[in-house]
């Protein structure tokens, strides 16, 4: 082999060392002295040649090991052939297409939008896409890594060798791309990246990959997500109405891996859930399923709240089309699907987004801005246009490609405030010296604006634990643009109250009433979520005081209070039948509880509460409006009784809700009512069918014209101990 150094030798050596950022300038076909020369790299080959129309054209070894080069006449497509020796020592001939003979895939408009960070459909141009390009089937790979010296696709198809398929840099966009012929659906791959200092980074999963290996393995997998046959048109015709402020919305929150287990402990599949979960939710009268994050995540114990594959439904339950089967089945049953979404942080796993191209690319470089000590995770740099675009496009992706009906955004407070969970001196103020994170606020507003603008009728929900103003107000009115907000204050106050022995409740009466001071300042959802039944907090049943009967009665009364209170409803799985033990993400919820009539009674109560809530406009139509609520008696501290009126439109019957939170019955308890006549006892949590003592008002009460509590009429009730009663005004 000649040792003479030429410009070509220098370029090939740079490729061999992984320092050449323009491999297409060297590899593939190039004109020289009026002829076409082809250069290729294959370190395992003994001989190489190109074939055009059946004619062989030898490619000779160059001065740099592994590279072959030679003239290939004409301008027609060629195919590469090579010969190597296998383990048996015999020569083997192989055939492959040359990826460096193919032109670019990304167009000028894509390049422009990528460059300015405004490509709303990022998933259509980045990631791995199965396609036919210039007449040849294969996969196009594209990834954003602006500070890299070299980016390569590695996988089974090239022996995970980063020198074989270095990618083409697309100008100032920071995007690298390559089309790999005959690589198709199911191929395993990662990106091998050489950072700006020449260091080869840990191999990275695709930030916009549509599939992943089953954890703890973490390679990305090429998935063709095109061509699904949706059959949910009827749902979309009514979705906007079903998700409005005036609609009954009762959400069943689900951690799919622990809802049901199959075959000695495996999680339920998407296909199985499309039947079993959807049927159960429909039977229970919930209007929506909310899934804890289904974006691919490496650690089971994070429950999905530390995602890495933001564009990949987790493989734990099946393939992308099978997840679509679940959503499609829910829609055909008239049930909406909300996905938990995590734009607030991401894990530090080496194959993830952290220092993706050898620099702090997706995250802040300064840990005072870019690291969450609470969760040991990294924080997105929301002020970087490409990062904000990545997150906004990801939100749109789930609404568009998987027909999600909304996103519940996790940990919004951690995004809004730069000093979130940080001691003095450990955070960076904004440009005005304050604590608000202007960049995160801007990203959330942009995300909501684009989501609602492109997909009318969705419902995005904020888990926001502070009093930040206007979370569920429109962006053009200065709000964040969410449709709804979790009412964390209501949840904390009422759970504190219900934990107390009834003898002390009169001193904490305000914890049940204070929520009405601000109940209509946002569009609220009342959440009893997974966070309330983990980390030593016990189950909902376990929070209740008293003996076993009192625990169940307390919980029944509390659920009655919740369903009668203004605000949409959310209940985490297992709490609908009063699971006795704290939630364990490694096992299914305790379905065996239902063999006990007390647990089965709670389940029936939740079903009946949902039915009453959905069928009675007064209980939902003005959930978010002050006109829909009026106290009867909010101050009966001595008896720990709360009573109020719920109203819908003027032509709809009103509902009176009365809750007794002491173990003492009140046999002649008088309440004021708006009208005389018959009030039907529509639901009584002490009914025998729910496990109660079957005490009540024989199905109805008669209101006379004796004024009380500021109302022109009143009625005497029998209030069972630890109970909630719903009275519906019957037509005269």
From TrEMBL:
Q: Which species?
A: Alloyangia mangrovi
Sorted keywords for this record are:
Carbohydrate metabolism, Glycogen biosynthesis, Glycogen metabolism, Glycosyltransferase, Transferase
The gene name on file is glgB
One GO CC term on file = cytosol
Q: How does it assemble?
A: Monomer.
Q: Which residues form the Glycosyl hydrolase family 13 catalytic domain?
A: 253-607
Its name, as the record gives it, is 1,4-alpha-glucan branching enzyme GlgB
- Where are the catalytic residues? 410 (nucleophile), 463 (proton donor)
Residue runs in coiled coils: none
Q: Which GO terms describe its molecular function?
A: 1,4-alpha-glucan branching enzyme activity; cation binding; hydrolase activity, hydrolyzing O-glycosyl compounds
Which Gene3D superfamilies does the record associate with it?
Glycosidases (3.20.20.80), Golgi alpha-mannosidase II (2.60.40.1180), Immunoglobulins (2.60.40.10)
- Answer whether the UniProt record assigns the keyword Transmembrane helix to this protein: no
